[in-house]
Amino acid sequence: MSRNTAANGKTPADFWFDPLCPWAWMTSRWILEVEKVRDIEVRWHVMSLAVLNEDKLDEVPEEYRDMLENQAWGPVRVVIAAQQLHGDEVVGPLYTALGTRFHNNGEGPTREAVAGALKDVGLPAELVEYADKDTYDTELRASHQEGIDKVGQEVGTPVVAVPGPDGEQVAFFGPVVTPAPKGEEAAKLWDGTLLVASIPGFYEIKRTRTQGPIFD
């Protein structure tokens, strides 16, 4: 089996997320749309804004620093604990439940929202206790580092890795998009992502964001 083909014959798309990030949430909704219209399989992985920024806390605005220190660790620790104790297959559904509560429903990354998300997907309620524990921080950091090793340091979340022309994955930060494209628009953005991944030496396209995330 090559990196360009999953065990079920579908094209793999590896996706690294922190459930706190609204832009990663938008991108994740796009790639789930792609699963409906292209023969791909999304494989979910956690990364951490807290880990990403832990050496830069003196450089970030006070409000963002407070979020990183007081809110960012809990949800991602719960996701990695769920993965370690219940398998990779729970990560995507739990992320959807968390993101729906955090972003679409406006509950934010509260303990109550995390507990509700666990209930939504039928996972044990006691997993919420891992929000305050470093039990699986080694695994969390390893998952985070796997994504960063693919894409490089000057990025955030999400990271998406897709098949490149030589059988190796090519990873990008993004795509950053709002609202999440659906149907054929989602497919075209996926096709474009594969296209730029096929060009050796391609690194970046960017423009200034003029609107925030649109949760629909």
Ordered list of secondary-structure elements with their pairings:
Blueprint lengths: L10 E7 L4 H16 L2 E7 L2 H5 L8 H9 L2 H14 L4 H14 L6 H10 L16 H15 L7 E5 L5 E5 L9 H15 L19
Parallel strand pairs: 1-2
Antiparallel strand pairs: 1-3, 3-4
Helix pairs in contact: 1-8, 4-5, 5-6
Q: Radius of gyration in whole Å, from Cα?
A: 17 Å
Q: Assembly state here?
A: single chain
Percent of sequence in beta strands: 5-15%
- Basic shape: globular
Strand order of the largest sheet: 2-1-3-4
**Helix residue percentage:** 40-55%
Tell me about this structure.
- By secondary structure, the protein is of the alpha+beta class.
- It is built from eight helices and four strands, in the order βαβααααααββα.
- Strands 2-1-3-4 form a four-stranded mixed sheet, with helices on both faces.
- Helix 1 (22-37) links the parallel strand 1 and strand 2.
- The protein is globular.
- The protein starts with 10 loop residues before the first strand and ends in a 19-residue tail after the last helix.
- 38% of the residues are buried.
- The model has no long low-confidence stretch (mean pLDDT 91).
